[in-house]
Amino acid sequence: MKLSELFGSTLRKAPTNAETASYQWLARGGYIRAAKDGDFLTLPLAERAMNKLRARLRHEMESRGGQEIGAHADILALAAGDIQSYKELPKILYSFDEIQEKAHPRLGLFGAAHSPSVSIHILGAKEETLQNWQALLEKISEEIFEKLGLDAKKRDSGGYAFLSEKSGADHIHCTKCAYLDRQAVAQRAKSMLSAEEPRELEKVATPDAHTIEALAAFLNIPKEKTAKAVFMTATIKDKEKLVFAILRGDMALSEAKLITALDASDLRSATDGEILAVGAVPGYASPVGMKNVLVVVDEIIPESSNLVAGANEDGFHLRNVNYGRDYEADIVTDLALAQAGDRCPKCNAALDAVEGANLLEITPMLNMKEATFTDEKGKGQPILGVSWTLDLGRIFAAVAESHHDDYGLILPPAIAPYDIHLVWLPSKNVDTQADADDLYLNLTNIGFTLLYDDRDARAGTKFNDADLIGCPVRITVGERTLEEESVEIKFRNKKEKDIVELDDIANFVIENL
Fold it and tell me: Same structural domain for residues 451 and 504?
């Protein structure tokens, strides 16, 4: 490709609203442009870069029997309609699509409303088969991340993230043992309270104590001796249901964990009217005596005795509320939101709150009851499935965030749009362009991909653009070196320059790249 014909120019300055290094350098290098509604246009250089990732993934899948399907495919419907027997399993299907996210335009590709992706779907008859495939996909992903020079962190609940300031999603991280997960599902250690014999319920006046902080201060007790009530309205099987979530007062609710526990499609805060309608009082609600409410308690609640909870009466609370004796729950599970300063669930060190871009997400193993197959004994069984989704846009942004200097991008060969940036330096004394044209054709015929700067421009402008674009190798054809039948070769990740004879260029690049 001749640079004079390339669509998308370099920029002298980054967009004023670009808050991440990846946005700044990808924009300046001519890879992306902001579009409307939080989206980004990927220019030809970016598409060539991501096409390298797509080609690698196609090769990995096809070499293992994987088959490509169209985007937006309903895997469940495909499986139900086409797989009848155990002899047809396993099946590995993959598709190139887009991930839709909440837009954060100032973050560039980390915050794009739509991001190119690849989804890999594994359908099998046995869990062991899916587990083996998951291990293989994990190995493939880690090899790709290594080739890209990415420090991708494995999350405890599955998938990988790239940790960087302003990279998007909230994560919880332990620097001591490397525990990592998205904050919505991250675990935290939960301290046990001293064992106590259950005492009798006692109603106490607590005027204006309608928050946990105010209640603990008024009664002079620690927050962990209180029971926090959180009313939510969940949509379960297309019907709204009032939910009473209970945690210890020193913990916050993870709505994501509650949604999972309820298998709900939607969740919102309950209105005061909805709370009053079931006989509870906002700020003084209690699970004691509650009816027609779905009660979900955090797993530590049954182990915490003699807590202070609301009395369902304005200005009053109950002392010595005990799970099992005074009330029971429909669901007991982990509901606590892990936050900075909480203790790590693995090593008990203090947890940190960090930002991380989601590079790879794993949809939990599914038991697809609507899609069945006939096993060896002629009995119908549900097809098992799991899906992996690699976010190509955010992977590219993570590479740009990791690989740049003060002059531009330094892209690894595995994702660089071109192997070589060929720079022709015009001369008033010698026709250097003919030599540059010949070199362009020769290296292309050998199999290298080249971006040929054939513009009649100053050397400084050309070198600056080469640094911004960040291809692995820059070859300069100029009057000075041609007098010695040589060219100047500089690798983007090195400071040194080499003078190499014309006949040795290909071997030199191959040996040193």
Answer: yes
